[in-house]
Each structure stands twice: as structure tokens, then as C-alpha cells.
TrEMBL record:
One of its GO terms (cellular component) is plasma membrane. It is a multi-pass membrane protein. The lineage of its organism: Bacteria, Bacillati, Bacillota, Bacilli, Bacillales. This is Major facilitator superfamily (MFS) profile domain-containing protein. It is found in: Cell membrane. It comes from the Bacteria. The chain crosses the membrane at residues 12-32, 44-65, 72-96, 169-191, 227-248, 260-281, 293-310, 316-340, 352-375, 381-404. Keywords: Membrane, Transmembrane, Transmembrane helix, Transport. It comes from Alicyclobacillus ferrooxydans.
Amino acid sequence: MKSSNESLSIWNGSFATVSLSIVNGYVAMYLLDALHATDSEMGLLNSLPSLVNLFAMLFAAITIGRARSKRIFCSVSTSISRSIFILIAILPWLAVSHPALWVVWFVALIRVPQSFGDLSWQAFISDLIPPERRSPFFSERNRITTIVGLFATLLSGLLLQQFDKHLKWPYQIAFLTTAAFSVAEVWFLMMHHERIAPPKRAVPLLVKGIRRFRTDTLRRVLADKQFLIVGGGLLFFNFGWQLAWPLFNIYQISEAHAPALWLGLFTVANQLVQILTYRWWGRMADRFGNGRMMAFAAVGMALTPALTILSPNMWYLFLINFVTGIPNAGTTLLLFTYLLEVCPEAERTTYIAYYNVALSVIGFMAPEIGIWFLGHWGMTAGMLISTGLRLVAGGVFWVTSAMIKRRTPWSTSSSVQI
């Protein structure tokens, strides 16, 4: 049964990755080239999901604890989430004004059922996979689904490039085909063997964090200088990082005029290098500390906006995405592990809950401010401001790394395996 569940989970994850790679990879091009979205709508594409996700996660955490079957709960949530892909595809055929704005709202709305699905899947799979098997299993699952995602991105980009990028129907057909992959995703999820236990009285982990939003805990968090220094630095870096997210889409699609295949190649180059360098970042963090390596990652990430705008040449942009995948891997790995390093183990859930609330606010504000910079000062200024903020964050990480005392053992290299 264990072997069967692991195999089914890998198939489930592979089909999920295909659907998500197609939609996430080309929804920005669909909006800009086919639906003629405005810059403000592109900003909302990046900012709204963060705001919706905050409230969705809170409600999902409370609801999941009452579900008798996590498998069914996850399957229903996933089905609802994937059905929104179909709505995104057929919107131009409906009698609605401003279809681009509707697509943006639907992309944000996906976060509601997706949050239910993600949290229930995590609880579901943790029940099925014993602790001693989790590290090798997730390592293998992540490796396979990443490879599947790379091929899905490339193949869909190659097919979309055969048509005029201003046509709507090729994107619509691509998004509609994700319905077939989503059916297979849910089918393999339902095929898992689940031991249905009586509902537990235990409160979900996230709900414990929610219930601790009280004056006494907030006062304790605000008095923790180490957490404020590191958490504040991470939030500042996230602001500088996410500020440029909509600008990259607009630059690559509207100014560099990258076709679908090249957009897929940019994604593949960046992800491939991340896969190859995760373990190196983990080893270096264990050797020199999360703070110092986070400083190096932030400086590397700071170069990305400035280097991107130097040339619209496709091969140049491909090279930039390839090289910047290295610090991107470090950022992806170290952001959370550095935070964990300064969270007291007994109150880790509370600290992370407060941080995630602040991060959701940053995730909503930063892209909107980035679009404001674009509208008032232009693309070059917006990108260089993002570079400057990321550089400052790198300096903060370097200076404060010597001031931080690690509270709990946390192996970064071992965490990469899962």
C-alpha cells in the first residue's frame, strides 16, 4: 500500500505540474498580447493573489480540521481550482466587458480552493508517508515533477509559437486542454489508499497560530529583537524582489517581444540551474550560516533587474535567466530557513503566523508600487529601484548575520531533500 500510494502521488503530481506549467507559464502573455491588458491589470495579476491567499489560508486551516476524509476534501478542492482554468479560457467567448480584468480576478480567485487543496494535501500525504520515507520520497517526487514541468513548458511554448501571439484562441485551446490533465490529476488523487480515522480533536497547526494573535503574544514578538531584525530584513528584501515581478512580464512580452517558446526557455533555464545548485546553497549555508549566504543570494538577485534591461536580445535574456537561477535557488531555499533560525521553537507557529500576515501585505503592495514606478518614471527606473532595494537588503543580511544567534538546530542541506 505504501509503494502504491507513493507511485500514485508521483502520477498525481506530474499531471498537476503539467496543468500549472501551461497556465502559469503563459497567462501573462495571454493577458498582454491577446487581451491587451493594461499595466495596472498586470500589477493586480501579481498582487491580488497574495491578498486572497491570506484569507483563504486562514479559513482553510479551520475547515480542514473538520474533514473526515482528507482525500475527498483535497479532490473536491482541486477540482474546483482547476475548473477555474476553463473559465479563464472561455472568458473571451462570453459577453463580458474588460475580459483581461476578469482573468486577473479569476487568477486570484484560484487561490481560495487551491489553499484548501494545498493544506489538505499536506495533511493527507503526511498521514500516508511514514517519517522515515518522507525525505527520499519527496526528493524523488520533486525531481520527477520538475522534469515534467520543464517539458510541459517547452512543448506548450513551441506549440503556441506556431500562431500569431495576438490571437486569443491558441491560448484558449491550451488552457482548455489542462482540463484533461486535471481530470487525470484528481483521478490519481482519488486512487490513493486512505485509512479514514475518526475526526481528531487536535487543532490544526495554522489554527494554533491564528488563535495566538493576541496582545500578549504580539507584545512578546515585538520585544524579540533577533526576530524583528531578521524578519524585517526578509520583508524588506521581499518588497524589493516582488516590486519588479510585473515589470519582468511587461518587459519580456511587450518591450522585448519574446514569443511563447522563448518565454518557456527563460523559465526552463532558470529552473534548471536552481535544481542543479540547491544542494550547493544548502552546504554553504550549513558552513557559513544562513545570514551570510542570504546576503550573497540577495546581491545576486539584485543584479537581475539591472542586467535584464540592458538588451532585448532573446539569447541575452536566456543567458541572464540561466545565470540568475543560481541566486534564485539560494533565495528560494534560505528565505524560510533563515526565518526559522530566529524563531523560538516553543512559539515557532506564532512567529511564522505573524510573519506570513506581514508577507501577504508586502505581496499585495510591492507589485502595485512597481507598476506606479513604471507609469511615472519608466521601466529603467523601476528596475533599478528594485536592484537598489535588493542590494540594501543584502548589506543588511551581511551586517546582521554576526548579530544573530541560532536558536534551534536547522540543517539547510538536509531540508533540500524534501
